[in-house]
């Protein structure tokens, strides 16, 4: 099984409501000698995005003395874009006023808590800025797509008739409707991990220490050992899924999993035959799961296969959650 990457899958993936972040699982599993826990728990959904400097627009949002009222229509930043949203709640959280917003026209699963720096008043002037920003990003994406089409890609087929689909399709202008995206849920603790990761890199200006230990290759191998110990065998389908996940991570990392100020670090570390999965770790692997719902939409996977794939990916997320302290450096 192999899934096909869509390079612009980041545009409209929105972080899910993180109001359940405080919920803790009642049961914690036992650990093996490598510090890997062997239990599973339940999960819930999210997303975040990368790359494009909008300091001039964001500065205006941050400096604005105004506050937003419940029920107010606003413009909200997400994925370097501005979207129409409605403020549903306003609360002080960790000494900061935060707003729970619903993105207009989107499924409520994408609702999320945001800070004042993510919101702007819904005025004629700001709507104009929203349109100008979208036009600029559409232009940038067209340029990237043209350059990407010139890149050399692998088109070989794997064993058992499996196709390796490396051709990159063009995304629909507005992207797939949210209700047609596969619902890969992210556990509340990992949701918070994503938010902390973003704050660590984007607001504190810090970088995750690399090479990471354990790296993505090692984490996937630990999961394989965990399933082998639990089930007594590893089905071929599971092996294919996680071989595809590793390959997909290596392709997706430079395209959609890095923040702007992480790119220089990538250029310094990833050269020649060095694969990203041998250098990067759980923080960046978790970002891939934010992109997977839209990625899978473009992969043309049969429903039965997609159901099995989702179950395996959910189980892997539970494995990451149970071993969060061992796998994530910023825990």
TrEMBL record:
Key words, A-Z: Chromatin regulator, Nucleus, Transcription, Transcription regulation
Region (Disordered): 1-48, 127-185
Predominant place of localization: nucleus
CDD domains named among the record's database cross-references: CBD_MSL3_like
SMART domains in the record: CHROMO
Stretches with biased composition (Basic and acidic residues): 127-143, 166-177
Protein name: Chromo domain-containing protein
Species this chain originates from: Anisodus acutangulus
